[in-house]
Structures are given as structure tokens and as C-alpha cells.
Amino acid sequence: MAFNPPGFRTLTLIALGFGLRTLSKALERAGDLAGDPGTRLFHHVSALVLLIAAVACFIWALKRMFFARPRGSDEKTATAAPPQPVGIRPEETSFDPDAALARYMRNRTGGKPGDLSAPKPSGGFGRKGL
Fold this sequence. Notes:
Blueprint: H1 8-33, H2 37-66, H3 75-79, H4 97-109
Helix pairs in contact: 1-2
């Protein structure tokens, strides 16, 4: 369990929780002062629903602070170079689609890139006529 300093979203959740709690108190007070039993019940049930929502906001904020993965980057990962993909030489880091297609055609037909003596595929996905 690591502590994540609260960010804007976490502080917004906490502020929303306190706002809902205050509104719940106001509704409960209005329910206490009402004379009609139906009105009293409505105010008290509404206050209870808002209080449950406030508790949910507080729990969500605590979850974001204590149980979420860290949002900042580590110093180790920031200074380390990105890993190279397996099987690619460093000089082949840039990709040229035309060269890749020419290499594929040369290996497929066994001849030069313009030689299309191999049978053409019928239907399916990809480039037609290769």
C-alpha cells in the first residue's frame, strides 16, 4: 500500500463528498421541522441517499490515494532507454513500407519485384493483386 498524493480528481471527490454531506444535513433538518409525516419521510430518505453518496465519494477518494497504482514515473524508467524489439537490428529502426513490399515480392516469387508469375489470391483481406 503506497500513498499517492491527492490530485485534482481526488480533491474534487473529497469536496463533492463534503458538499453532499452538507446537503444531507440540510434535508434532515428540513425533515425534522416538517409537520406532515409523508414530507418528513421524503426528506429523511433523501438525506440518507445523499449521505450514502457522500460516503461513496470519500471511499473512492481514499481508494485513489492509497490503493491505486502510482501516477508519477519512476526515476529509473525515466532515465532508461526504451527496450528494443526482439529480432530487430538497431540500424533497422525506421520502417519503409515500399522496401518491405519489394522484399516480400522478391522472396515470394523468387524473382525480381516486378515478376508476378505466382497465382493471384482470390478474395480475402489485404492488397488485391499481389
